[in-house]
Amino acid sequence: MNTSFLRKLIKKEDGQPIVEFALVIPLFLMFLSGLFIYGWWFIANIFLQDASFESARKYAVALDRSSAEGYFKYPANRWGYLFVDPNSISLNLSNDGEKAIAMVRGESRFKHFMVFTVPTIEVKSEIPLEYRFREPNDFDWWWK
């Protein structure tokens, strides 16, 4: 009589879904948090890429740092402040005689989340300078 009771007890599966749920839910939550944090990072990267491109484009056309920095701030501030930490954003403008180069560096608002850590975002945009800046000697006749 005692052995039949044990066999019935072992065959019962009433709590099986709860045990499986308890084993699987931490992995599922880690997966969702990873999707969230890296999705947030990719959106921040898109905003910084746009800001880098706009500032390089303006600098290539006008060779004016202040206006290029203004163009840099517009895409970053449009909705970017939700995704990018505004205190971490830096812009470095330069030209090598042939192209304008904009280097943007920034950090996502969510740097650490659960077990995930995202890297610092570094974006570089290069755009050819206007012909009048690349070959100024071709325009000497115009000014004389």
Topology:
Elements: H1 2-11, H2 16-62, H3 65-78, E1 90-95, E2 99-106, E3 112-113, E4 116-117, E5 121-128, H4 131-134, H5 140-143
Antiparallel strand pairs: 1-2, 2-5, 3-4
Helix pairs in contact: 2-3
List key phrases describing it.
rod-shaped, 144 residues, 55% helix, 5 strands, alpha+beta, two-stranded antiparallel sheet, 3-stranded antiparallel sheet, 5 helices
Structure description:
By secondary structure, this protein is an alpha+beta fold. It has one domain (2-143). Helices cover 55% and strands 18% of the residues. It has 5 helices and 5 strands. The protein has helices spanning 2-11, 16-62, 65-78, 131-134, 140-143, and strands at residues 90-95, 99-106, 112-113, 116-117, 121-128. The strands form 2 sheets. A 3-stranded antiparallel sheet has the order 1-2-5, covered by helices on one side. Strands 3-4 form a two-stranded antiparallel ribbon. A hairpin with a 3-residue loop joins strand 1 (90-95) and strand 2 (99-106). Helix 2 (16-62) runs antiparallel to helix 3 (65-78). The radius of gyration is 28 Å and the shape is rod-shaped. The model has no long low-confidence stretch (mean pLDDT 80).
Percent helix: 40-55%
In angstroms, what is the radius of gyration? 28 Å
For the biggest β-sheet, the strand order reads 1-2-5
Low-confidence stretches: none
Shape: rod-shaped
The succession of helices and strands, N to C, reads: HHHEEEEEHH
Count of domains? 1
In this structure, how is the largest beta sheet organized?
3 strands, antiparallel
Structural class by secondary-structure content: alpha+beta
Number of helices: 5
Percent in strands: 15-25%
Gap between N and C termini = 116 Å
Residue-averaged pLDDT? 80
Q: Total number of β-strand segments?
A: 5
